[in-house]
Write a structure and sequence with these properties.
- By secondary structure, the chain is of the alpha+beta class.
- The chain has 4 helices and 5 strands, in the order E-H-H-E-E-E-H-E-H.
- Strands 1-2-3-4-5 form a 5-stranded mixed sheet, with helices on both faces.
- The termini are far apart.
Length: 146
């Protein structure tokens, strides 16, 4: 079942995030819980999960961005697309992305963007199969100075 994450999904979502970036520093539980709660409470931020038999097996994070161009239509930014490693290749990724994109279209978005750090062709093929293309724009990312 595709749905918005709830407070009770915290442990399941964090388990997925550990799979997404296994080398990330461990965030203290209280800080992670406070951030999770902030995401759930903030208008325009949507943390989605796909649940199967009570277990969170996939997640996406859709940010709806207000916009003054395009007739004031918002745009969406998708982050942290995660499917449980044991369930990859079964269509779950396409299902959660379909729900995420539908939520963006229902919110009136004129486009939805995402970035991937993956260089794997299979990842790019997945995003193309979900309806994304490389587009006409070039993406740039800034990182804080080290």
């Amino acid at each position: 079942m595709f749905r918005e994450a709830e407070a009770t999904d915290f442990a399941g979502v964090m388990r997925l995030y550990e799979q997404l970036h296994p080398n990330d520093p461990i965030v203290p539980q209280d800080r992670a819980a406070a951030t999770y709660d902030e995401i759930l409470r903030t208008p325009g931020m949507h943390l989605f999960v796909l649940e199967d038999e009570g277990a969170v097996i996939a997640s996406t994070y859709l940010n709806l961005m207000p916009n003054l161009s395009r007739g004031a239509a918002p745009y969406g930014v998708v982050e942290n697309v995660i499917v449980d490693s044991a369930r990859r290749g079964t269509g779950i990724g396409k299902a959660i992305m379909a729900g995420t994109l539908q939520a963006a279209w229902d919110a009136g978005c004129y486009k939805v963007m995402l970035l991937t750090g993956s260089k794997r062709e299979s990842t790019h093929a997945y995003y193309r199969a979900c309806g994304f293309d490389m587009g006409e724009k070039t993406g740039f990312v800034a990182h804080p100075p080290s």
